[in-house]
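Tokens as discussed.
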């Protein structure tokens, strides 16, 4: 035959003791609710932060891609302006002028750039040196410019002989 143990009934508490115990349980439940609310808020903030960081990474990639395209276009502008400038100067300047106006000027060239250090994003500007060009193209441009100067000098000398 198996022995069956019956639960022992707790000793009856006095009303003040029961009220004190009930108040302690209410306080413990309130503290648990506060801890749960803090944990839920922390989870929401963590989720929002992760989503926002992903958005920042996507924006960073987009800005840097646009900046690379802008840099390419600025270099193309420089090359085109350099090529057209001698013709522009020849058309704009009077025959005896020493300093014709250029078709273009560059005061400062920069594109935006977003870099990352750890978890921090840094929005800055990347300065461009547009004077650095392809060596072959630069040499060909110098040769063309020298030919134009030589031809201009020959025309001037020829004009001086006929005077």
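Sequence:
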């Amino acid at each position: 035959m198996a022995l069956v143990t019956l639960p022992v009934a707790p000793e009856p508490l006095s009303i003040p003791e029961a009220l004190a115990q009930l108040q302690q349980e209410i306080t413990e439940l309130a503290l648990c609710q506060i801890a749960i609310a803090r944990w839920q808020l922390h989870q929401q903030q963590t989720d929002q932060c992760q989503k926002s960081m992903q958005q920042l990474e996507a924006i960073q990639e987009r800005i840097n891609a646009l900046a690379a395209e802008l840099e390419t276009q600025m270099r193309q502008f420089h090359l085109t302006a350099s090529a057209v400038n001698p013709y522009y100067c020849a058309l704009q300047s009077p025959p005896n002028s020493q300093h014709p106006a250029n078709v273009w000027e560059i005061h400062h060239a920069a594109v935006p750039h977003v870099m990352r250090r750890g978890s921090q994003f840094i929005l800055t500007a990347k300065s461009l040196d547009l004077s650095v060009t392809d060596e072959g193209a630069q040499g060909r441009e110098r040769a063309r410019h020298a030919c134009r100067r030589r031809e201009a000098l020959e025309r001037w000398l020829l004009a001086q002989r006929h005077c």
